[in-house]
Amino acid sequence: MSEKKTFYITTPIYYPSANLHIGHALTTVMADTMSRFKRMKDYEVWFLTGSDEHGQKIERTAKSQGVEPKAYVDNIVEGFKRLWKRLDISNTDFIRTTDERHIKVVQNIFKKIYEKGDIYKSEYEGRYCTPCETFFTERQLNEEGSCPDCGRPVELIKEESYFFKMSKYQDRLLKYIEDTPDFIHPVTRRNEMINFIKQGLEDLCVSRTTFDWGIPVPIDEKHVIYVWFDALTNYISALGYGTENDELYQKFWPVDIHLVGKDIVRFHTIIWPTILMAADIPLPKKVYGHGWLLLESGKMSKSKGNVVDPNVLIDKYGVDPIRYFLLREIPAGSDGYYSEEALVNRYNTDLANDFGNLVSRTVAMVDKYFGGIIPEGNVPGQYDDELKALAAKVPEEAEGFIENMDFANALAAVWKLINRANKYIDETMPWALAKDEGQKGRLATVLYNLLEAIRISTTMLIPALPQTPAKVGEQIGFDFSNSRWNDAKTWGLIKPGNRVNKKDAIFPRIDPKTLEVNEMETEEKVPEKTFSMEPLKEEITIEDFAKVDLRVAEVIACERVENTDKLLKLELKLGEETRTIVSGVAKHYEPQELVGKKIIIVANLKPAKLRGIMSQGMLLAASNGDVLEVITVEKDLPAGSRVK
Ligand code: MSP
Fold it and tell me: Which residue's C-alpha comes closest to atom 23 of ligand 1?
């Protein structure tokens, strides 16, 4: 018998510095969906998640609550596990960095690299951002001298430290990234990382002496190991790397996908691979950096008090609707927005109306016209071929999207079939067929085809919505518990003669009036909004439009304009030229967020002075009410490219 193909996927291990929010759930739900999909494709899947429990921030948080760090993390980590269970996350392991099995491996790897001469002792002087647990050089700080990632103040640290010779691996890493197009996804992050490495890698400080809550350096117990060195190693410590019991490591490493948020791609594609190179361990096959889930009021953060608690949403809407929203609403690799209104809209439109109604209507008709017994369908007619052709195409399409972690488009593909089936009901008008005894055979075929379309759609939903298939299955008389992905590619698996069971709607409609925005410790409420489109402007000709010269421009620097809270000054690269533009987007973006982005500008707009600064053009942004998004280009188009 041939060995099963293997698939190893990981989520980041989460900091137990606070409870998890809906943004963390996004990462884990994506990884879970991928795992379930691969299982349906007959892979043996290893799916790891866990908690990143050491570091100064946790130590301080625990102290501030008057408890020992271990007692503090034990409690929070229980909450992590509960949440993943509730969200039906099918992880095969949960690693804690306080686990003995982890500590041993981290120390071994540290020692191995030290003995090789790639870790050495020296003195560290630099800036440290405790919330991000990251060191920065002077050059990397933002204009205010604060953390370039989170904008918070950094601390000046001077201490004896161990250093990892990361610089030694710079060229090898660059070559690996350039030679392995699949290593970093999406491509924008890959380019960012290549640019970062080209600026030069410095050696990395990998130990600290100013606090104790960490793994002791094995050769020098005064020091604890830097949290990122400790944390990244979880991906192999959980597999028993370097221990007697390393079958999992032998079987599953190198990992197929490290799924991470865009903010930590750098750690996974620079620090982690160089550590692995130094330890002579093969590199990950792919690091996928997904976008962030944002609120209309900006980033979710505990300090802002606008964190959305997934538990509250599960209580209110159930597990699958939350999973559906997260997967459907966040475009692959880009940011997406959460609001309870958007969640309810998605629920009502896609789940209640399109899908739920299709199931209810079909089952009700089998009940009414055939006494609940699934009829045989052997009278083909108009529209059947179109429905079947789409049913044959969509599983291939959805599969391609899932392989690229593009769940939004995968679900959109499934909904093409669902909506085609709804249209098929309107076209074939079963209620009219039922009036004519001579059309009984045709009616039977129409209903059979509808049941098949439902079965195929539901099969494709198994990875994303683990609780829904059983409910659909009960109603349409089909057992999905052992379904394989390829069942979606086969027409005709429903058995005539089985019984349907009419039940309550699978996704009862939610009255949007009952909507209330729910946030933990809410300070900033997300305003409720209804969209009213501005009236269209007067018609123009193609020649009128051609006068506007739109170009891709790269933001190379960005800062606030002094004494205004609206204006940002952007330095742009446009071909060989650099330009300055001033734009009123400061309420929506931190300057640092725009740096590196490729935006679109009107390049031939007459320059104008704003607050004493000559603005040479205007950027494009979409807005509605308080929401604004600068239009960006995702692919690697050179600055200066024309936009038509
Ligand atoms: N402990 C580190 C990871 C170490 S992995 C070796 C860490 N933890 S974290 O808890 O701060 O974040 C974990 C993950 O959650 C990151 O991938 C981060 O991008 C993701 N998210 C945190 N907030 C998020 C959103 N609002 N939206 C989407 N993902 C978000 O970093």
Answer: 23
